[in-house]
């Protein structure tokens, strides 16, 4: 029987991280909790909302925050929810599985539209939500979502009659709850559903904004944007809402998401496309390294400043040559909130230590730079060590296949060899990285195979999100400026925030399309780490 959905009582499914470290910190018009309360009140009055399911999700961010050495943040379920103006139920999910979450929603037996959104996203736009609901009702959709808006500014709408099929789908194709909400699950069988889309007047997807308070970096972004995103703007014409976010591009930069740290000067290879041999001609025998106590202190400082980030070893030099590399890996993985990324040639590792250590790691990933699958080609590009690197790669894929990536740099006149690399490895792993060649700001010759620059230049991701530290503590503007630009400071002599703040002006110049000399001809601005 066809029923008019507008007369039914609708249901809100509000997802929240199980840990809410920034939930009660102030934005410009209250805390994230206050924003959620106003959103629920508005939805209750305009959307006939009668019940709410609060689902607390154990996310990867949650696990990071639990492991912080700073004061642990509060658990969401332990907070006071009595302010909620609509009858609600609280469920602490045991996993981040959509199957479990949908099972909980099904028990509420909703008759009207189910709206799903993250409750730690303070900028739910009410008019966009109303437009979504009208679209959903008019076309009697199974699933309706907004496309092109920043994630967190609109809910996804679900026909309750669709829940049984989604439960079956989530059982056959286990899907985790993330910031893409239900779309990641539905696309497993996308043709089975009637889907409607509300398009934004401006496409925010290239900017990768995350308007939620789940991390310190995202909280700071929300705090900056909240000055213009008043409660009135969140209720009125979406065009003003869009203009407010669009016009604040300089505020998108908050904290580093990616720390690239050099811990050793030595490297066993002089790769033909790498700037390091020119910067350090004695790299094969350079025994300098960052002392263990100094390295651990540095990692701790960075963790306290930007806890939900990635530490990468290493922009220059080979991590395996550090005498305490296994202790460093273990310390970061077990005691710090950050994830760890190790970029290595695969040469110099102790097989027994690797077999002992790798199975114990929980949040460490590896990129093994190989470039070739024939010894002759390998020697041309990288030098000696082919058999050791290949053996290391096979060992790592056996120990931790999901966390190991093989990498080749794409170079001019080597497309056939690159294809051979891909064909060789695709049967052994899905984790294959084809890296863009970079000429290091003109330090190296142009060996780029193809120009992939976007038609419209955006501000540099690396100035916005990356922070590089060299062996002596010097911090370059970015990895591409190493060797051809004055350092921005020294992390062993000053606070990282002070150095980071100095990089703000070059980033703002990018926003104004006025590029510093070192950036003008660089084409790494559109590449993205984390």
TrEMBL record:
Keyword Cytoplasm in record: no
One matching Pfam family: Radical_SAM
Cofactor requirements of the protein: [4Fe-4S] cluster
SUPFAM superfamilies: Radical SAM enzymes
Keywords of this entry: Iron, Iron-sulfur, Metal-binding, S-adenosyl-L-methionine
Gene Ontology molecular function, alphabetical: catalytic activity; iron-sulfur cluster binding; metal ion binding
Record has Metal-binding as a keyword: yes
Stored InterPro entries: 4Fe4S-binding_SPASM_dom (IPR023885), Aldolase_TIM (IPR013785), Radical_SAM_PqqE_MftC-like (IPR050377), rSAM (IPR007197), rSAM_sf (IPR058240), Spiro_SPASM (IPR027608)
Radical SAM core domain residues: 253-468
Protein known as: Radical SAM core domain-containing protein
Organism: Spirochaeta lutea
